[in-house]
Amino acid sequence: MNSIRHQSVRWLAVILASGTAVIAAERKTDKPASTIPSTTALFGDKVIAKGKGVEVKQSQVDEMFITFKANRAAVGQKVSETLRPRIEADILEKLIATQLFLKMATETDKAKGKEIADLFIAEQIKQMPSEDSFNRQLISLGMTPQQFRAQILEQSTVKAVIDRELKPKIVVTDAQVKEFYDNNQDRFQEPELVKVRHILISMLDPNTGKELPPEKKTEKQRLAQKVLTRAKGGDDFVWLAKEYSDDAAAKNKGGEYVIARGQETALPEFEGAAFSLGTNQVSDLVTTRFGYHVLKVIDKAPARKIEFAKVEGRIKETLLQEEVQKQLPDYVAKLKKEAGVEIRTASEKP
Description:
The chain is an alpha+beta fold. It has two domains: 4-172 and 315-343, Triger factor/SurA peptide-binding fold; 192-302, Chitinase A, domain 3 (Roll). The chain has helices at 4-7, 10-15, 17-29, 39-43, 58-74, 84-104, 107-126, 131-140, 145-166, 174-183, 214-232, 237-244, 268-276, 308-339, and strands at residues 47-51, 54-57, 189-190, 193-202, 256-260, 286-288, 291-301, 304-305, 342-343.
């Protein structure tokens, strides 16, 4: 039910975070968009940054800019070409930093990076009906599955190096952790939860993701009504889900999902139906852009405050990472100086 457009491209929000800040600044100026040809098209594929163990070409920056635009478009945001020079400058800095950190990576760092990457990718695939659907969504965002996996592995390895280099030098006390918990109570409220079983009768072609033709839709509607009648009649819901559901991500678990109230990735129609039902109650047909859904509520849990002991470790890690981010610009500047990194403008000769 979750969309890869909001989930599996989160890595770009990290890699190109200040590019988003540039977009926010542009909205305040309300400048008209213009079309600026790529620097590569004008001057050829020049080396624009070079140093010991570092070489970045203009084509790399161009490709990242295109991917960045696709990522923003996927969440309904347009990137004006007037912002291109500023965003590309930020991309260049991140590409330089990435090469500097990868040069420092040990075998342990690479193994840790692979572990992080594998876990992240597996979690994202779980959000889609199938791995094929996941890959098709990537392609729609301008990335091949191989490119996506390579980028995730690269950035995960970079994270492992940064953590090894900077985290051991940072001290976060127990008092700081407790103070953060006490001062941010709204962050530690667990929302109301509902556990449901779910059957999806999809109105989308599993191969193309497009709507089925009218005759197929009619057939699917009849099937959805048949499944609903059997579910309300007391048939085993787990069996019905495994037999009829088009939701490949959950059908083998009997269609089980846990939904949090206000969860960003939940479909509003689905969430509304789930929280309106009583325990063991079966819904009527719920219609979403994916098709027809039949839900059965298994359990509910009210909103509650999360105990300090359960989040203490997460808070400490958050504070550590915040301090790492504060120290990172100076550390990268030091690495660039040691590597003798020089940045050339597009018009300079290599």
